[in-house]
Structure formats: structure tokens, C-alpha cells
Specification:
The chain is α/β, with parallel strands linked by helices. The protein is built from 9 helices and 19 strands. The chain has helices spanning 57-67, 152-168, 182-191, 201-212, 246-249, 268-271, 287-297, 310-317, 351-355, and strands spanning 13-15, 18-21, 26-28, 36-38, 52-55, 71-74, 81-83, 86-92, 100-106, 109-113, 135-139, 172-176, 197-199, 223-225, 235-238, 254-259, 277-279, 301-305, 322-324. The strands form 3 sheets. The chain has a 7-stranded mixed β-sheet with strand order 7-8-9-10-11-18-19, covered by helices on one side. A hairpin with a 2-residue loop joins strand 9 and strand 10 (109-113). It is globular. 53% of the residues are buried. The chain binds zinc ion (ZN).
Length: 357
């Protein structure tokens, strides 16, 4: 795990199970650990097999739907709670429904763990903000300067133009987005613009759960789960892993748009060559948001996780005390990395993994 030793006065430790905050007795997004694990959100690489988890109510519901019932201590956003020797608060991470940053306040300082996050709009989450802290543990998936994304409203307009163009050519617009998070954001942007959408079951099941949790999808467009042969003149919203299946390939005339931050990968042209458009609509912070986070947190010690090791070097060059902690011990990811793709092998250079998105 860590490529450097943590200072003895750090609020963070590393155990064989991953990152650990002793003051609160919490492992961070550990696949399994004795005791209690903080689950930042319900993507498969963050779900935990631990006996007891701490998370938001929404993440508890999504986690339960995906992994079965768990002893969950739920904490709504912005509700300080005593845990061990610390006060713990969860803040919106705006990554997907329920996604949270963890703030641990102790007598010897404050630690923040971002989990996966973005600073941009998410229709299913309160606006995220950068919490002030002494020690920051931050994800850095897009920690290279090439990954600076256009404003979301520009990208959403491009998505709408793509759909209009496909319909104008009597083609089925196919939008690829993974099941939790991006799938619902895509559906929100499609139905609110008036498109009727057919939704792949893996995405639709989680859409239903969003509705049950109080997050309906806006009209005037409608959405319905996919049934074979019944797409009609509607948008097909499906997961990247179905791109080469009969469901997509047998559509007589189609245009494919993939939503992923890896659109700016240097090999994207080749990786996504059978897509007509790749839009960097991402649920991760882009490079500028990452640097802003480091700066505005006020942290005097920064640990980077996921993403390129070079991001910590870049932060050091900007004057921050930053070290890379390597990947979490999670092995399976589904967000920007595609279903069932190992994060540890999915650095930006790994075209095979990217191709599986
Ligand atoms: Zn995620």
C-alpha cells in the first residue's frame, strides 16, 4: 500500500485492511476489516463486507440493495456525531446519490477523506464544498492536467445535439453510462429535455431505487425499462459493457455516445473507435477541481489515493506537502473504470481496461 511511511503524529494509519482513522475507529472504504468501515458511496469498489458500516442513509439503502442487509450506522449529511475519541461529520461528495466525504475532528486536528467526489452539480446530491482540515486524504483519478473538463452545461448541450442529430438521421441514439450515478445523471439530463428514454435493467433498477428514496426523474420526457425489440423512436440508455452485445449491435441504425472523463485520454480515439461521440461528463473531480481542493482545504498534509502518483509530485511543485498513498485495497470498480475492472490495473495508461468501460 503506502509508498511512504506515515508520520507518527498522522491522524491516519494503514493496516493490512487499508486506511484507518484510529481516533474514530474507522477503516476507510475497506473491502473488509474488523470493526467498523466508513463506506463513502455504493459503487462496487467501495461496498464493504465488514460486519458494521458507517454511511449516509442513501448509501445504506443502495449498499443493501447491492450487497444485502448490513448493520449500518447511518449519518445524514452535516450531522456531527461522536465516534470514539472524535466527532465525525459527513459532507456531500456529489459523486452519486448518498456519496459522502468524511470529516474527523479530534483534539489534535481535523482529517478529511474525500472518497470519490466532484465539485460540480449533481441533481441527486446537495452541492459539495471543500471542508477545511489539517490532514487531507483525497482521490485523484483525473490528476493530470489534460483532464480539465468543459462546464457541464456545455457537455449537456452536446449530449442533446447528439440525440437530435441521431433522430434527424432516423437512427437510435444510444447513450452509454454505468449503472449507478452516471446512468441516473444521464437520464435526468435526457428526460428533463423532453426525450423519452428506454433504460437498461441494471440502470433502471437503481433508477427505481432513486425514486423510492425521493429522487424522481423530471419530465416532460418519460423513461421505461428496456424490453427486447421495443426501443422505437426513443433514446437507449445502457451500460458500457453492453456496447458490443446484440442489444446494441442489432439496432439497425444507431449512433453511440459514451459518457466518460476518459474522453481526454490520449488513446481515446482508438479505445472508443466504435463510438460516434465521447463526452467527458464525469462524476469525478477534474484536474482543476483537485488542485482547488488541495488549496482551499488549508491542509498542511495531503495524502493522494487512486489516480496517478505524479499528482502528488505536481502538488509538491505547487508548494503542498503531498504524498501518494497508492490504491486502496479494493479490487473491483465500476465507476469511471467500467464494470469489474481492477482499479490497480486501471491507470490511465491501461488501454485494455479502459476499453472495458
Ligand atoms: Zn465511485
Amino acid at each position: 500500500m503506502p509508498r511512504h511511511s506515515l508520520p507518527t503524529d498522522s491522524l491516519l494509519q494503514v493496516t493490512p485492511h487499508g486506511l484507518f482513522v484510529p481516533a474514530a475507529g474507522l477503516h476507510l472504504d475497506a473491502r473488509w476489516a474488523p470493526g467498523t468501515v466508513f463506506v463513502s458511496h455504493a459503487h462496487s469498489d467501495h461496498c464493504s463486507g465488514a460486519d458494521r458500516i458507517v454511511c449516509t442513509p442513501e448509501t445504506a439503502a443502495l449498499h443493501s440493495a447491492r450487497r444485502g442487509p448490513r448493520d449500518a450506522m447511518v449519518m445524514p449529511f452535516e450531522t456531527p456525531t461522536r465516534l470514539g475519541d472524535a466527532e465525525v461529520v459527513l459532507h456531500s461528495a456529489a459523486h452519486c446519490l448518498g456519496a459522502a466525504m468524511l470529516e474527523v475532528r479530534t483534539d489534535s486536528g481535523t482529517l478529511v477523506y474525500t472518497g470519490d467526489y466532484k465539485l460540480r452539480f449533481n441533481p441527486f446530491a446537495p452541492a459539495s464544498r471543500i471542508p477545511r482540515c489539517d490532514e487531507l486524504v483525497m482521490e485523484c483519478t483525473f490528476g493530470e492536467p489534460r483532464y480539465v473538463f468543459p462546464p457541464d452545461d456545455v457537455l449537456v448541450r452536446q449530449l442533446h445535439a447528439f440525440v437530435d442529430s441521431a433522430f434527424a438521421q432516423d437512427a437510435t441514439p444510444v447513450v452509454l453510462a454505468y449503472a449507478l450515478g452516471k446512468g441516473q445523471e444521464a437520464l435526468y439530463h435526457l428526460t428533463s429535455h423532453g426525450y423519452d428514454v428506454v433504460v437498461h435493467g441494471a440502470i433502471a433498477n437503481l433508477c427505481k431505487l432513486h425514486v423510492e428514496l425521493g429522487h424522481p426523474f423530471p419530465g416532460p420526457g418519460t423513461w421505461t425499462p428496456y424490453r427486447r425489440g421495443e426501443v422505437g423512436r426513443r433514446v437507449l440508455l445502457t451500460t458500457p459493457s453492453t456496447r458490443k452485445t446484440a442489444m446494441v449491435q442489432r439496432l439497425p441504425n444507431k449512433r453511440i455516445c459514451h459518457l466518460t472523463g476518459w474522453a481526454y485520454h490520449p488513446g481515446a480515439h482508438n479505445i472508443y473507435k466504435d463510438c460516434d461521440m465521447v463526452l467527458p461528463l464525469s462524476d469525478h473531480a477534474d484536474y482543476d477541481e483537485l488542485v482547488r481542493t488541495a488549496r482551499e482545504s488549508g491542509a498542511t498534509r495531503i495524502h493522494t489515493v487512486h489516480g496517478p502518483e505524479s499528482f502528488a509530485e505536481r502538488l509538491r511543485a505547487l508548494g503542498f506537502a503531498a504524498e501518494h498513498l497508492g490504491a486502496h485495497p479494493q479490487t473491483v470498480s465500476e465507476d469511471e473504470f467500467g464494470d469489474g475492472v481492477s482499479r490497480s490495473t486501471t491507470r490511465a495508461q491501461d488501454q485494455h481496461s479502459l476499453d472495458l468501460q
